[in-house]
Please model this.
Amino acid sequence: MTSILMTSVRDDEQAAIQDYAAKHHITIQTTPKLINDALDLVPGNDGVIIQQRGAVSEDVYGVLEANGIKQLTTRTAGVDTIDLHLAHQHSLVVTNVPAYSPRSVAEFALMQIFRMLRHTYAFDHQVAANDFSWHGLQSKEIHSATIGIIGVGRIGGTLAKLLHALNATVLGYDTKPRTDLDGIVRFVSKKELLQQSDVVTLHVNLNPTAEGLIAAEDFKLMKPTAALVNASRGPVVVTKDLVTALQTHQIQAAALDTVEGEAAIFAQDHSQTGIAKQLPLVDELNKMDNVILTPHIAFYTNVAVQNMVDIALDDVLSIINGQAPQNEVR
Ligand SMILES: NC(=O)c1ccc[n+]([C@@H]2O[C@H](COP(=O)([O-])OP(=O)(O)OC[C@H]3O[C@@H](n4cnc5c(N)ncnc54)[C@H](O)[C@@H]3O)[C@@H](O)[C@H]2O)c1
Model:
């Protein structure tokens, strides 16, 4: 029977994994360990699927090849953990899961857009302190608001359709504007989008042109009543400029699911020690009443977890059976 080793497995993935194993009549061996620390489990398996933030250690590639493994699959979109050159030297086909559920992040961004428009960040803090006054924070209804999407790809495009269904005015800025969203998104310059939007939401992929895409001069263009949502990647926003923009009321609020340097704090409990030592600027943001921070969980839904498991395993089985995988990374 075909047997596949999955590393860094969380408890919440087990149901999807066992379901797949039963449906496809295969064995799936799981471990919470990183592949770097689980090489003793490789013998006897026909395929390997990983998921980790740190680099795959150099000895892994040789061990996989020596055990007759033909592939290395990561059940994530990012492949920066894998040394493609080394993998190919060891005859390993590398695959990933480029899109597990654009809807998961789009729905999360939509929720944060509503929270920005309805000022719930402020009311949550006030009410927690028994202050039930209104403070003149009148909201805009979504169909009267203009939402600017920067990066109208898989997630940005999905969000655009959700916003259009709610009758919001949707502006888009992308280095590759799309014609299939005619009537849903009006593509404009970055400057126009920043000037006109009530909420600016970021959905670019991280690349050299996207790093520092939102900096001091961009915040100056935004309305003082506008808010920023970032569920893309931390380095897209210059954190120190965002802190200044919020402190000087150049913008009203921000919802951040991702921040620069997040690997130092996200997916860990820092409730006893705080985060000031690791990320002082993020610590400052976290103390602001007009900032909502979440630990990179926009993707974390039932559908996304199932898809990460299914798409990764489909490709491993294809390779084992001598067929071309859907998501090879070259
Ligand atoms: N928060 C989460 O949980 C989570 C989960 C999944 C993905 N993401 C992130 O969401 C982002 C979008 O993912 P996707 O699958 O929609 O990517 P995608 O590749 O489908 O779309 C990205 C879009 O950004 C555009 N773009 C790139 N650089 C640009 C620039 N400098 N200016 C304007 N547009 C630019 C591209 O042309 C493309 O249309 C990625 O950064 C990804 O890492 C976050």
